[in-house]
Design brief:
298 residues; alpha/beta; 8-stranded mixed β-barrel; 12 helices; 9 strands; globular; binds ligand C2E; binds magnesium ion
Length: 298
């Protein structure tokens, strides 16, 4: 609805607005304000990253595995609208073209955080960053990413690039080439939201990926839905046979963690282990003095 509304506004000018219901106008107004605000959001220090820990499952108790890394997740504190979800503003940034600058800002920020945590004595973590689908059309993408990590002086091996299964399905050739280049440059590559795109599993053979992120929609009904258990088990077996490791997203309960461990899943990420944390809270979490998560998380 927001997309349609924005399109009409552009076509018809101000007069176009009178065709819309009041709540639609409000939505349009908000979308426009978000699109405008996004251009300067990074400069105005309104953007920040939170980090969600990822835990290895291993063979012991599911709540005893070591920390493996973290995913950097973008947050926007808008001066008028408050905290805006990336689910809302990333599509707007993709439409307006602001996404490139934002995604590169995220990579640089994550690289700087790696340096800061290294200096603070944390174990050498791999930080995952999300790259928008639109970035895969950039011919110089991998060089641009290399340029950033070199400038910050972080080896590319410390950065894991997440692209969604949807991107890989939409642009199979482009995805294959880009993934190969990322791999060659030393970046780790993860396929995000896996299982939502109805891709043939044999597709995976084409991609030089390191990790599969099993979408949270499978995890949600893991214990209730027998078919999901079978699907997840099949995904994990197939990934392992191709030398790809697996992580499940959106793990919220001990029961889900136990089930995933039984399915052979390598790692988990989700509220059960930890919510995404601001850097100071993350550091405390890693050092074993987790503060009250209800105040530390975003
Ligand atoms: P994603 O990459 O699949 O990230 C996982 C989402 O699941 C995050 O939502 C995370 O906060 C949420 N999550 C984590 N654990 C749980 C759980 O146990 N239960 C539930 N229900 N949710 C959980 P978030 O942070 O709102 O991000 C939404 C999406 O926005 C991301 O999905 C990603 O596609 C996109 N995004 C976030 N940061 C960036 C970024 O820096 N660049 C780009 N291009 N996209 C980003
Ligand atoms: Mg992700
Ligand atoms: Mg995901
Ligand atoms: Mg997602």
């Amino acid at each position: 609805a927001a997309e349609v509304a924005m399109y009409r506004v552009k076509q018809d000018g101000r007069n176009g607005l009178r065709f819309f219901a009041p709540e639609m106008q409000a939505h349009t107004q908000r979308s426009l304000e978000l699109a405008t605000g996004l251009k300067d959001a990074a400069h105005n220090a309104e953007l920040f990253l939170v980090y969600q820990p990822q835990r290895s499952l291993g063979h012991g108790a599911p709540d005893s595995g070591p920390l493996r890394g973290a995913e950097a997740l973008l947050r926007w504190r808008h001066p008028k609208w408050g905290l805006v979800s990336p689910a809302e503003f990333i599509p707007i940034a993709e439409q307006s073209g602001a996404i490139s600058a934002i995604d590169f800002w995220v990579v640089e920020q994550a690289a700087r955080q790696i340096r800061a945590w290294d200096a603070a004595g944390l174990p050498p973590l791999v930080i995952a960053v999300n790259l928008s689908a639109t970035q895969f059309g950039r011919p110089q993408l991998v060089e641009e990413l290399l340029h950033i990590v070199r400038r910050v002086d972080v080896p590319p091996q410390r950065i894991e690039v997440e692209l969604t299964e949807a991107v890989a399905l939409k642009y199979p050739e482009l995805a294959e080439t880009t993934i190969a280049q990322l791999h060659e440059a030393g970046f780790k590559v993860a396929l995000d939201d896996f299982g939502t795109g109805y891709s043939s599993m044999s597709y995976l053979k084409r991609y030089a990926i390191d990790k599969l992120k099993i979408d949270q929609s499978f995890v949600k009904d893991l214990s209730a839905q027998h078919s999901d258990l079978a699907i997840v088990t099949a995904i994990i077996k197939m990934a392992h046979s191709l030398g790809i490791s697996t992580i499940a997203e959106g793990v919220e309960t001990a029961e889900q963690a136990t089930q995933l461990q039984a399915c052979g899943c390598d790692e988990i990420q989700g509220y059960w282990y930890s919510r995404p944390l601001e850097p100071a809270a993350f550091e405390a979490f890693v050092k074993g003095h987790a503060p009250d998560q209800t105040t530390a998380c975003v």
